[in-house]
Amino acid sequence: MKPKMNWLDYDIEDMVDGDKNCLWHHLKPHKCFETQEQMIIVEGRGLVVKDIRGKEYLDATSGGVWSVMVGYGRDSIAEAVCAQMKKMPYFAGVFGNVPAIKFAQKLLEKLPNHGKVYFSNSGSEANEKAFKLVRQASRINAKRKGKYKIMYRDRDYHGTTIGAMSATGQAQRRQDFGPFVDGFVEFPHCACYRCPYDKTYGKCDIECARNVEDIILKEGPDTIGGMIVEPITAGGGILKPVEEYYPVLQEICKKYDIWLIMDEVVCGFGRTGKFWGHEHFDVDPDIITMAKGLASSYEALSATVVKQKVYEVFLNDPTDPDTRLNYFRDISTYGGCTSPMTAALESTRIIEDENLVENSRIMGEYLFEKLDELKKYDCVGDIRGLGLFAGIEYVNNKESKEPITEEQMATLIGNVISEGVIVGRTISSFHGLNNIMNFAPCLIITKKQVDTIVGAVANAIEKTFK
Ligand SMILES: Cc1ncc(COP(=O)(O)O)c(C=O)c1O
After folding, report:
1. At the N or C end, where does the chain have fewer CB atoms within 10 A?
2. How far does the centroid of ligand 1 lie from the alpha carbon of residue 262, in Å?
3. Considering the entire predicted model, what is its pTM?
4. Is residue 41 part of a domain?
5. Within 10 Å of residue 65's Cβ, how many Cβ atoms?
6. Is the CB of 231 under 6 A from ligand 1?
7. Domain that holds residue 190
C-alpha cells in the first residue's frame, strides 16, 4: 500500500522553481518572473504571514485584497469545515443544505429589510446575478418591461468577468478587453479630491448625484432597471461619498423605478467600522452583493441578497400567457458546496463573539489619527476612507495635485515591504492615477500593529522622496 500523502510537505527549491515555471500570477508583470523570485506565502497567524524563506511580514491588506477579516490561523473554521465536509460536502443548489439555510438566516438577520439570499462563489458572480435579475425582470414582468440597462460609476470595480467588467469604470483596467456587453451606462464618480464637476464640498449642490438624473433622462428612464455602486469605492482609490450623496441617488432611483444595487464585496462584514458599508449612509438598497469577507476567504463564497419585492417579480404565474418563466433562470455549480457557508457561519460567529466590528471602528479611528501625521510630507495629497479601510493618494505637488509616477509608486511600495509590512495599491486601473496606497488590515488589529504599519510607511516615504 502506498504511504498516505502529506500534502503540507514541500521542498523549498522545488516550490520556488514550480512557482517560476508553472504558476501564472494575477496582476503581475510577467517579465519579472524571469529574474525575481516571487513571494510565496506559506503560513499565517493573526496578522502575520511568513514567506517560504522564513521572513515574516505584518499584513495590512487582509490577504492582499482585503478579505481575511478574522485573521489567519483560525482552527475553528478549519474544524467546522472538516466536520461538514465529512458529513455532506456537496449537492446542487437546486436543493437545500443545512449550512446554506443557516447562513442565509444569519445574513437576513443582518439585513432585516431583505428577503432572499442567492449563493454563488465570487464577487464577480454575485454581481452577474444582480445584472441577470435586472435583465430577466425586464422580460418577464410587465411593470419592468424594457428596463434592462444597468448604470455604474466610472471609478468603481465590480469584477473580472466580461459582464462585471462592462459595469466597471477604470479605463485602464478595461482597455484590452472590449467590446463590452451592451446595456451598461456610465456616470461620473463622487470623488471630492478630484471632483468631476470641479466643485468644492460645502459650496456644491452634490452635482455628482443630482446630475445622474440628466443621464437617465438622456438614456431613457424606461430602459434603465438597475444602478450598481460600491458604498465606498475600493480598488478605484478608497472613495467615500459625502453623506448627502446616497439619499439623492436613492431618490432618483425610486423616481424611475431603478433597483439600487450595493456592491458590499469589500465594505461588508465590518471592514468600515459598521457591519455593512452602506449602513454609514441614509440608503436602503434593493439588492446587495457580497463576497471576500463573507467567509474571511477561508472558503470561496458570494451572495446576492434581494428585497422580497425583487424576489416576487420572479413569482409569476406559469399559466399566464404574458410570462415565460416563473423563476430566476440561473445556476451556479459551486453555489451548492457546503464548506463555504460553514466557514462563513464560523467566521461570522468569530466577528460577533470577538466584537470585531467594534474593533474595526475603534482601531479605524486610531489608524486615521496616525495616518493624519503623514500629512506633513509633501507627497501626501489626500488621506481618506472609513474604519479599517484607508487610502493615501500620493502627489508630486500638493497644489496642482499632480500624481506621483508609476515608478515612484512602485519604489514606495517596495520600500514599505522591505520594512516588513505589506500594503496595497491601485494598479493598472487609471492611466496616470495609480497613485493610491491602501490599507485594509484584519479586523483583529491592535494599536501596536497600527503603529508598526504607519511607521513603516513613514520610513518608506522618507527613503523614497529624500
Ligand atoms: C467592489 C468589488 N466588487 C466585486 C469584486 C469582484 O470579486 P471577485 O474577485 O471575488 O470576483 C471585487 C474584487 O476585488 C471588488 O473589489
Report:
1. N
2. 12
3. 0.97
4. yes
5. 19
6. no
7. 77-353
